[in-house]
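Go through this pair.

…
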Amino acid sequence: MLDWVLGRKSGKTGSKLAKGKRPSYEKAKTIAAKGDTEARRVLASFEDLEPELLYFFATDRAPEVRRQVAENSGTPLQADLLLAEDGDGDVRQELARKIGRLVPQLTPDENQRLTEMALKIVAILARDDLPRVRAVIAEELKQASNIPKPLVMQLARDVEEMVAAPVVEYSPLLNDSDLIDLVTSGLAGKALIAVARRRAVSKPVSKAVYDTHSVEAVQALLDNATADIADETMESIAESATERPEWHGPLVDRDNLPVRVVLRVAGFLSSAMLEVLVKRNKNLEPEQLEELKTTVRDRIARGDFPDDAVPFESAEDRAKRMHQKDRLNEKVLRKAMKAGEHAFVRHALVLMSGLPRPQVQRMLNDHNPMAVAALSKKAGLTMKTAEIVQKRIARIKPNLMLQARPDGGYPLTEADVERMLETYG
């Protein structure tokens, strides 16, 4: 990759706009000196342009030209170093995208000067004033293992969640000690959730996440099937879950819950979730199962369950029974989603929409906000409820969700709905 430092001679073009054969060197020099902005920009997009011309264009008066140089993979690193501190944010962002993709390709055998220059550019961009520039660097380098550890920690501690979160979730350079240090030093929001989503979260890190008492982060931890959660931490979660309905579904869905946790959550789960709990924990000893039944009987006697819920009635049967009595409505679905009764909601959407169950499942499982909104509208729900379905049932990220119009209506036309139903039908 030494040609990257000096400028490539590959004959390829760096942009779709660089069509046809590139001008001769003499003509290129004339364009560089006297050509208009568009001519200079197109010339700067040729990947095999002479390095000295690309270097010259790196200080061009037009930001459009400098952006093209920043995007061009044939640009020598010396020019990229200039562009790293360019006054135009779009120029630096384009450079961050390019350099971020190239740095992970560097190997220990690469020229030392090349590596040092590339990392110097990365370091400059990683402290850029614009969060969007730092975010591009973080996204491109989140899984890189050949960058300095201090740079990783710098990105992980960034005040902007969109910068810190990708590195915190994916970087292979962060060990348990680093992660615990990040969590205990005040990591919050999406960056804290990113810790909980890491693959193979260890018991100490799981405890650190729980100790923050972040509802969203603990929910993400419970949702993470690869997270190793110590029995003591799980018991603490179960204790706190009484006031946290968002945790009920993810908690019940976990395998190998400690017996004490099973017995503890049986004291406050909904009827549908109790059914799931019993099915997933069939390995209980006879005396433990009897204790579980006693807890449920006591709750029945106290009237803990609503009139429309029968303990251990399946979610599907409950939905069908309520549908037959014309009691399935938006209020019921909102209450069920708040309680984490996701299976019940899915069955209810099948009945309320009149669509085949496989089609409804595809629409909910494809992480497509348009499909979920179309299904919700077909089921007669308001767009505000459709937003909750996107978040809780379809698990669509907040930044990708469809939002209600200012008047509360759907941002979909009837044609959009029909197209989605046909696509998933």
